[in-house]
Design a protein that fits this description.
With 153 residues, the chain is α+β, with helices and mostly antiparallel strands. The protein is 39% helix and 17% strand. Strands 1-3-2 form a three-stranded antiparallel β-sheet. It binds zinc ion (ZN) (2 copies).
């Protein structure tokens, strides 16, 4: 069991460094939330985070506080807000799946959100493009019906 423990600690290191670099204490729930966002392949809502990490010790409120904290310091960002549900992802700088600011596909039928990392919105003449194009918090959403909903229709 000794080696298991060493592995676990090694695994936690990057999240700890990221938190420290952002001026946050690397508490266990904070590391776990960040780890989850970094390993996720799509943005996660608060309830999905609770589904993955929720315990008696780490209740909804604890996880929510930590999620918000990560957004406050810029480690995570709100990737989409559909129907009042915010979904979060690790921000570009942290090397999460969001290696660049990418659009998100939102299914208008089931509300599912997926990343479109291969799709980029490029301004032909960046000088004349609105300043919003330069913002890392830029939110681009593509609406339509996902494959599942199309095939069920
Ligand atoms: Zn759908
Ligand atoms: Zn994404």
């Amino acid at each position: 069991m000794k080696s298991d423990k060493a592995e676990a600690i090694e695994h936690e290191q990057p999240t700890r460094d990221l938190l420290h670099a952002a001026g946050l204490r690397a508490t266990a729930p904070r590391q776990a939330v960040l780890e989850l966002l970094l390993s996720a392949s799509r943005p996660l809502s608060h309830s999905e985070v609770v589904e993955h990490l929720g315990t008696e010790l780490w209740d909804q409120a604890t996880l929510y506080r930590n999620l918000i904290k990560l957004v406050e310091v810029g480690i995570a960002r709100v990737a989409s807000e559909v129907g009042g549900v915010r979904r979060y992802e690790a921000s570009a700088r942290q090397g999460g799946h969001a290696a660049n600011v990418h659009p998100h596909f939102v299914c208008t039928a089931c509300g599912g959100v997926t990343c479109l990392p291969g799709v980029r919105l490029v301004a032909d003449t960046p000088q004349s493009a609105p300043a919003v194009f330069q913002q890392p918090a830029l939110e681009i959403q593509v609406h339509g019906r996902c494959d599942t909903c199309v095939s069920e229709a």
